[in-house]
Amino acid sequence: MREDLRQQYLQAMGIQVWEPRGPGAAIHGHTEADAADLQSVASNNEASQMTPPARKDVSHLDWEALREQVSGCAACELSQSRTHTVFGTGAHDAEILFIGEAPGADEDRQGEPFVGRAGKLLNEMLFAIGFQREQVYIANILKCRPPGNRDPRPEEVVCCEPYLKRQIELLNPRLVVALGRIAAQNLLKVDTTLARLRGHCHTYPEGRVPVVVTYHPAYLLRSPLEKRKVWEDLQLIHRKLNELKEN
After folding, report:
1. Model confidence over 193-206: pLDDT tens digits?
2. Measured distance CA(77)–CA(52) in Å, rounded
């Protein structure tokens, strides 16, 4: 950024501009490092106000066209670090849609959600309620892996949201199961804790689809004692699905 424009920006933000007199010199109680920090804040603020990449309208796309759109997506910085996009997998007429938070390392390598140990545990959860993996649909809030498996950032969720929304529209499931706190909060647009979300049937705001919340399989691998609670959630899923079939 040009220095004259930077100075104007800092002044417009009400940030006093310090003119260092030498390396490490203190100016009015501030050092050169302080001045650099101020300029860094201004640069970050400027970046946050930049218009994000335009998102294409995907509301008319079928499954094949939507998958192609996701595979070439560059709407956020995750496109620069991914190996593969992770679109989703399963039956396009599935009654249940399972949604996690984001791909992990295994998923990024293979381009498929819930593989590895977490995937095997999810398969066991499905079997407990009478389903094979091929009979349900599995997706994530994000289509690309965040570096280091960090939590998804709000701007990344916003970029991926149209893709997931379109998947839900195309699938039109009887029931959605949110796997983990992050998936549940982003899907339901709430900041409620997982403990309070579990044990109840919620509603997906966009399509009035019933939503049940349970633990993410990866969490259960770290906390196996919580599997008892998951069994309660699976029973709720089974009961709710039967109710929906009867109505």
Report:
1. 999 999 999 999 98
2. 11
